[in-house]
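Translate structure to sequence.
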């Protein structure tokens, strides 16, 4: 408990130390945006990457598998169907830079993309239904997982295969956003 005489002394001393204008200036400064005057960092995570071509017919197996499927991470995100024209389908799946170009990555030559085997990506079998649906849509063609860095702790996992050969080939599969902190 503060002695009554000390309370008035403290209030009087504080009143003499700070004028109303100084106090308002202090409050204004305290309430300012801490990022004021700093440029916002450039991040490609806000740029939506292309997952489907306009008018693309998504294979039924992938539609069904992605309907209620979520990738579990710090932020559980839904799987989204992927269906993109792939003129190079005769040679198999795209390399990292080819995929970056197909999905309209803002800097394909420097995109941080890593190719993984589905078994290494899904060691617990959590996403077996997704991998099985992609395998079915690809009629047994090779399936790969592409880990696409999106900036900071965000990455996207693209589970892809081809569903044909030559000029009519398409990349089909599913993708999901993951937050890995």
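Result:
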């Amino acid at each position: 408990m503060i002695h009554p005489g000390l309370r008035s002394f403290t209030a009087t001393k504080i009143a003499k130390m700070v004028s109303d204008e100084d106090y308002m200036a202090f409050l204004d400064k305290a309430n300012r945006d801490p990022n004021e005057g700093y440029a916002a960092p450039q991040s490609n995570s806000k740029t939506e990457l292309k997952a489907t071509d306009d008018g693309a017919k998504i294979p039924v197996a992938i539609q069904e598998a992605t309907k209620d499927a979520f990738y579990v991470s710090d932020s559980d995100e839904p799987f989204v169907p992927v269906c993109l024209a792939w003129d190079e389908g005769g040679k198999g799946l795209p390399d990292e830079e080819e995929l970056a170009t197909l999905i309209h990555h803002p800097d394909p030559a420097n995109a941080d993309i890593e190719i993984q085997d589905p078994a290494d990506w899904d060691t617990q079998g959590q996403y077996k239904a997704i991998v099985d649906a992609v395998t079915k849509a690809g009629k047994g063609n090779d399936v790969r997982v592409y880990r696409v860095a999106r900036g900071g702790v965000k990455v996207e996992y693209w589970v892809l295969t081809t569903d044909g050969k030559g000029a009519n080939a398409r990349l089909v599969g599913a993708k999901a956003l993951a937050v890995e902190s």
